Structures are given as C-alpha cells and as structure tokens.
Amino acid sequence: xxxxxxALVVLTFATGIIWLLDRLLFxxxxxxxxxxxxEKEPLVVDYARAFFPVLFVVLILRSFVAEPFxxxxxxxxxxxxxxxxxxxxxxxxxxxxxxxxxxxIALGEPQRGDVAVFRPPHHPDQDWIKRVVGLPGxxxxxxxDTLYINGERLDYQLLGQYEGRGRGRDMTGVAxxxxxxxxxxxxxxxxxxxxxPRGQGEWRVPEGHYFVMGDNRDRSDDSRFxxxxxxxxxxxxxxxxWMNFDSSAPGWVDWSRIxxxxx
Length: 263
Hints:
By secondary structure, the protein is α+β, with helices and mostly antiparallel strands. The protein folds into two domains: 2-64; 66-261, Umud Fragment, subunit A, CATH 2.10.109. Helix content is 22%, strand content 30%. The chain has helices at residues 2-34, 43-64, 223-226; strands at residues 66-70, 84-89, 95-96, 103-105, 115-118, 128-134, 139-143, 146-149, 152-153, 156-161, 175-179, 186-190, 201-204, 209-213, 229-230, 234-244, 260-261. The strands form four sheets. Strands 1, 2, 5, 6, 14, 15, 16 and 17 form an eight-stranded antiparallel beta sheet that branches. It has a four-stranded antiparallel beta sheet with strand order 9-8-7-13, with no helix packed on it. Strands 10-11-12 form a three-stranded antiparallel beta sheet, with no helix packed on it. A hairpin with a 2-residue loop joins strand 8 and strand 9 (152-153). Helix 1 (2-34) runs antiparallel to helix 2 (43-64). The longest helix is centred in the N-terminal third of the chain and has 33 residues, at 2-34.
C-alpha cells in the first residue's frame, strides 16, 4: 500500500508541474509560433492536463478523508471477515501527510474500542487492523480467555458457537462471546483450551502508545506479542464495510455485509 501511495503522490506532482510549466512558459510561445495555424499541444502536456485533476482529487480524498482497505486475514473475526472491503476515516486521529504519516493537525485521539488501521513498528510498509483496548497509562492483562483493564476484569456473555463461511469456515465451532469493553461492547472469538503462553501476561501502556488486539483472540498477532503501538503509526479509524468478496464462499459476495457499520 505504501508503494501505491508513493506512486500516487509522484504522479500527481509530476502531472501538475508539467501542466503548470506549460501554461506559464510554453503555451504562449506555441500560440505565437503557430500564428493562424491550429496550435498543436504536446502529447505529454495533453496527458498531464487530463490526468492531473483526477489524480489530485484521488490523492486528497485518500490521504485526508477516507481510504479503502481490504481485510486479508481472520484476526478481526467476527467483526470483520476475510474479503471485507472497508473504509477508513483518515482525519479522526488528525490530519497526516501522505507517505511519512506525519501529523500536521491534531483533531482527536483513539478511544477505547476503536477499530484502527495502523502500520506496525516491525512491518512499517504494511497496513494492519486491530481494536484499541489499552490507552496511554493503562495496565492491560490477558489471562486465559479474559481481558483485564487496570485490574478490572471485563464481563463476557456467551452467545453460542460461531459458524464460519468461505475462508473463515475453519473457525466454525469456536465460542462467540460479547465482551463489555467500556461503552463499546463487541463480539470476540475464543477457542476453548487454546492459550499461547506468549499471549498471556500484563503490560503497562506508555504515554503516546496504545495496546491493540484482534477480536479473534487465538488468531491475532497483536500487542501481546510485539508490544504497544506508537501513536505515530496510526492511519485512521475503520467505520464501514462497503463490499465483501470471498471466492471461497458460496455466491462469492455476502450482500448482507455491504453498508455494515464497524463497531
């Protein structure tokens, strides 16, 4: 995704500069040289004039308003499924420059329960998505199948067994639980008796960092394994599923997921 972002920025600036230089320096000379004849615009200028407005609008929308992402893994099931195409609000956590992700205007910070897109410190060229469970200063603990925030055990309600579809069908039969994370209750998946010892423990969240976890607790590579997430790595807040496509699922498209809000 980062290389696409770099290419978009380079193409936008290149076409814009070509168009601007032509209007300021070369167009008048061509008209004077052509005289009564029809002016012939160079092909590169013609392409720059045609593509620059489109590229500029796409760059602004993608960098500062909303960006599309595709869910490639099962780590956020059952909230997000493999094959979901989502939209991410790019200004919720502040206005950031493309490519280097530097925040230039502070507008807000992640709240507990947000589903956030970010670039993990150990894979800075990849976009990941997890749920924010720990805020700066929090003491987060995970024991067995239970999450604790600042020493308080979260409440869980067993909803039944999960029935997967498509590429997520191997999760069929695991427990679906409603986790009461503050005022943001949401569903999580838990495989009974499956506890990776590396994902058990207690962590203090430093200032300027967040603790993130996947809703599919036994299939998620998250802060339990690689540490807290620096604020500078945040990309935006996921808010909508706009398409679902999984060639392994019956019918390929789950129409019920289109337009589904992300909680």
